[in-house]
Amino acid sequence: MKIHQDGKLAAIIAHLFFLGPIVAFFINDEQKDPFGSFYIRQNVGITIIFLLIGALMGFVQYASAMYAFYLFIFIIWLYSFIGAISNKYNLLPVVGPFFQKTFSRK
Questions:
Q1: How far from 12 is each of 45, 56, 64, 65, 106, CA to CA, in Å?
Q2: Is the pLDDT at 79 greater than 90, yes or no?
Q3: Residue 2 pLDDT more than 80?
Q4: CB-neighbour burial class of residue 105 (10 A; exposed 0-12, middle 13-18, buried 19+)
Q5: Is 26 exposed, middle or buried (0-12, 13-18, 19+ CB in 10 A)?
Q6: Residue 66 to residues 9, 24, 44, 60, 71, Cα–Cα distance (Å)
Q7: Which residue of 4, 33, 73, 74 has the fewest C-beta atoms within 10 A of its own C-beta?
Q8: How far apart are CA 77 and CA 16, in angstroms?
Q9: What is the Cα–Cα distance from 52 to 105, expressed in whole angstroms?
Q10: What is the C-alpha separation between 23 and 93, in angstroms, rounded?
């Protein structure tokens, strides 16, 4: 499957936290490239995990738990970003299929 330039651009921009998936959605809206859509869905999921677990981290008094959480988010973000740059569909382990199913337009 050929990846269009706009799809790759949308996939990379989707990795800019918070606003990236929104901007990438509008870039990818006209052409609806599957590659761009894949990474937009994936990064919406990463952002939601960050916000939900990050809100809970306010109640945790251990700095090591907070560092582990930020390291976890960074690792899954980096795994996804490397896939976008290298034109590969890197599905996140465990939560990736859930994100793709939940955030798809059907």
A1: 15, 28, 30, 29, 24
A2: yes
A3: no
A4: exposed
A5: exposed
A6: 32, 29, 21, 8, 9
A7: 74
A8: 10
A9: 23
A10: 25
